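Incident log, structure service

09:12 report received: a user says their structure output differs between two submissions of the same chain.
09:20 pulled the input from the user's history:
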Amino acid sequence: MANSLSHNAYESLELEFYIPAAVWTHPATEHFLSDIYAMFEGATLLGGAKGVWKGQVETTNIVKVIVRKSKIQVGDALSLVQKAIDQLLREWGESSRDRQEAFIFTMRELILHEARETRDGAR
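09:34 re-ran on a clean worker, output below:
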């Protein structure tokens, strides 16, 4: 029997982390991203976005993560992310050159739709 597709929808959380290009290669950023990648199954990088902060144009990399709510509670996700951000800001702050005034991330609830190949018509 031929493979078929199943279509499913899942309540999910989407997190987006806005990381200025000026600190993208900083060791603290690499550590932060390693922590985020370990917490969640995968991530998408949207690199080179142009933004404006206090009237100055800057390049920002956006890291987007989507996780099914059945795999993590909203409060747990927020707590884990806040701890990682706290450490990131502390490490960036060790150098006046790399210090960042703020770190911005968004978290929202959404419905993730997935089409997945199934074997032998199983769903």
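09:41 both user submissions now match this output. Likely a transient worker issue. Closing.
09:42 reviewer note: The chain is about 25% helix and 45% strand. The two ends are 14 Å apart (CA to CA).
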